[in-house]
Specification:
6 strands, mainly alpha, two-stranded antiparallel ribbon
Amino acid sequence: MAKLNHGSSPAAGTPQLVQSLGLFSSTALVIGSMIGSGIFIVDAEIARGTNSPALFLGAWVVTAILTMIGALSYGELAAMMPRAGGQYVYLRESLGPLWGFLYGWTLFLVIQTGTIAAVAVAFGKFLGVFFPSVSTTHWLWHIAHVPALRVGPMVLGNMEIGVNTANLTGIVVVLFLAILNIFGVKLGALVQNVFTTAKALSLAALILLAFTVGRNAAAISANFGAGWSEFWRNAGWSSLHPVQVGVGGPTVLVNLLVILAVVQVGSLFSADAWNNVTFTAGEVKNPKKNIPLSLILGTGFVLAAYFLISLGYILVLPMHGDLNGATVWARGIQHATEDRVATAVLEQIFHSGGAYLMAAAILISTFGCANGMSLAGARVYYAMSRDGLFFKSVGKLHPRYKTPAAGLLVQAAWATVLCISGSYGQLLDYIIFAVLVFYILTIVGLFVLRFKKPDAPRPYKAWGYPVLPALYIVMAGWICVVLLRYKPQYTWPGLVLVLLGIPVYLFWSRRTSSTPPFAKSAKDGAPIN
């Protein structure tokens, strides 16, 4: 196998990445990338799965523990290798170029682009609250309906392909943000700062409302009971919870350790994308200090807000509800209309005006999330291209604005395809397991680098090493095992998508062997010493 041109840099005189992002901007990128629309929706599924107020909140405690350990561990890697590409670089340097490529391949194919497509279309859907003509049922060009196809535990298809006014709005958002981020990282960061500040204030307002004017004695009685009897209901070690295996499979009873792992499909990945700031390391001022700090501050803020919001939900609405309930109260958290728990909470407080308030908050949240992910993702493809593992043009920077313009446009083009195909939702479901596996592998890489390169400079060392990183591997590994057993529709397709990257890697690496190597640059991602 030919040796790859790790972190090759442009020739002398060509554009270089500019370090423009300060601590506030990098922290805003963490927060803005993490907060999309998930926290406003996934609590309904978590409530149905756990059927216990204690386990409902416990799911977010598990998410907080895992995510904070991940952020603390990644801080060491970021301080060691403050280069464009972030997690791609960490995997490449610790486990080898194949693993770095498989991460970058999956990121481009689904993780980043699928999330951008999903949140951009969500923007379109919620814009329809104010402008009813913007809707997923208002078709401008309906190409085809792909019927559902059962393949083992999976259901493929059941998609509408074409352009409706909602996904057209999403496509406009995707393309607008790609073009905007070409005009300099400072402009992209300014937009991110504004929208992250706005969404942070929106979350704070939601928490404040739930804990004050929305606080409902009847909901507290239903969810907590006398002496907290209702709060702990179904949360004991001997309590069993029903879980359907796969799609259309048998329903089995599992204990609390299993059900907490199953519901992480919602909570853990509503808190995902915290690692995106590492992709932009080549453009962060004083990255050895600011990236670890922004990871800790950003994830800490979001996780605290998510827990408080979920606690606020059970202060306003009963957890248990009736699927056929005619009112917001009767449906409760478990059966909130279309799982929009936050909307139900605001409707309980403000009645009809609540839906408009929530729609406005989600518009702010999804736009900021799409911008953050658009800005960050292109830096990974740039780093891959510098290694000869992606299109050569993606490894070049705009001559004036010093941004990976080609990477931004390629990313937007693929996200647009996903918007039109309607496949992004299923693809994101499929890749959840793979995302967690890559997190595990990256933290394994932390141990590998401590062994292989004990004398490498480490301006920041992972807090709690080796106990906390090992705890992450054990906890995340347990979640993976549980998902393999009980939710194969979320696991095997993701693994297939990852493995499809192996022949692509072989193609690109052979292509690289016939290409003259570039000069190496520590700034753009040369191997660590």
